[in-house]
Predict the structure.
Amino acid sequence: MKFTFYGHSCFAIETGGKKLLFDPFISGNELAKDIDINKIEVDFILVSHGHGDHIADLVPIARRTGAKVIAAYEIVTWVGAQGIENVHPMNFGSANFDFGKLHFLPAAHSSSLPDGTYGGNPGGFLVHGIEHKFYYSGDTCLTMDMQLVQRYAKLDFAILPVGGNFTMDADDAIMATDFIQCNKIIGVHFDTFGYIKINHQEAVDKFKAAGKELILPKIGETITL
Ligand code: NI
Ligand code: MN
């Protein structure tokens, strides 16, 4: 399975012969200026919530690629009004796709769209892929609800925010690894803005001291998991 990082909380995962893109926010990210959004090929786009730093490039990428957009009903309605027809609305629950079963699970955050439209509930995704099972929490603080994840699936890895301020920081993410029973974490939602700049070595060392692994991917980097 391949994980490609596009900066902030935007990444692509190839699983079961399908390419999934999460939380497309690239062109507005100064740190990701070397990424060309017109070169990203994708079959599905999964959106955790409506904030601009997760959705800014959603409509252009969906329009060009024809990828199916999976998101909260309210977000799907919003992109539908912009002419995107290949959509799958969800709320908290599960559904089956070509790449496997997908749970949309609660995040403790907020969700409004860039024009102020209500974005429904913010969430995270648990992907029961054909090859691997993984969890992306979306923007959230640490919540007890995360303990449900390990009842649903034995994870191969998880993607968690580690930047703090708007989400979990590294310390909270380490507690989350116990809740979800997964010790291999890819950190996202760090460094993009002043509020979420982190000391990489300190975060990695904290995970190591807890007997866990934190990968902080470089923008544009593809990791084979
Ligand atoms: Ni957010
Ligand atoms: Mn965010």
Remarks:
- Residues 49, 51, 109, 139, 166 surround nickel (II) ion (ligand 1) (CB under 6 Å).
- Residues 2-224 form a domain with the Metallo-beta-lactamase; Chain A fold (CATH 3.60.15.10).
- The chain is about 20% helix and 30% strand.
